[in-house]
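Section 5.1 Outputs to date
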Amino acid sequence: MSALSGRVAVVTGASGGIGKSIARTLADDGVDLFLTYGRHSDDAEEAAAYARGLGRRAVVASADLADSTSPARLVEQAKSELGGVDILVANAGTATITGWREIDLETWNTTLAINLTAPFLLAQQVMPAMVEKRFGRVLFISSIAGLNGGVVGAHYAASKAGLHGLTHHLAPRVAADGVTVNALAPALIGDTKMFPVDPDTASTPVPIPVGRAGRPQEVADMAIVMLRNGYLTNKVVTLDGGILPR
C-alpha cells in the first residue's frame, strides 16, 4: 500500500496532458481527487471517471485561476466535498510565445496570476491544515524556462522562476511539520495542449539528447515518486531529456 493511499489531492489544470496523467497516476496510488480545469472539461472528467472506476472519490470543478478569489473557493469546496486536502499539485499554467518587446501589461499580469500567484494562494490555503496534521505534499509544476529563460517569453520565464523561489521559501518553514514542498520542471513534453506533437516523431525547437520529446506519463511518474517521498523537500527537479545538465 502506498504512503499516499487514502489521501486527498487537489490537481489544478487536470484538463491538460500532464495534469490528466498525474491525476490518473494518483488514483492508481489510492488517492481521492479534486480536479480543476479552466476551459476544457473533457479530460478532467475522463480522469475523474477513471478514478471512480478504481473506487476513488473524484470531484471536478471549473476555475479561472487568473481570478485571485478562485484558490480559496476551490480549497473550501475540496474540504466540503472530500474532507480536506493532503496533496496539492499546482499544475495549471498559461503561456504565449511573445518577444520581450511585445509583452503588454495585461499579458504579463495574467501569466503571473495563473502561473505564480494562484499556486501561492492555493498553498497558503492548504498548508495550515497540513502542518496541523503533520502530513502534506505540495508540488509545483514548473518548467526549465524558470532556470534558463526558455523560448516562450519573459513573462512565462519569470513566473516559473518565481515558483522556484516560492518552493525554496516555503519548504524549510514546514519541513519539520511533515510537509514537503518541491517543484518539478519538465520541458518539451509532447501530447499536451502547450506542445501538441507526437513525442516520438516530432521535431523539437532545441536538440534533446534522448532524441525525442517527453511523454505526459513520464512527468506523472516523476511526480508520484516525489509525492511519495517524505525526505525530499526544497528541490527543483528537472525532467528534460538531458537538455540541462545539473
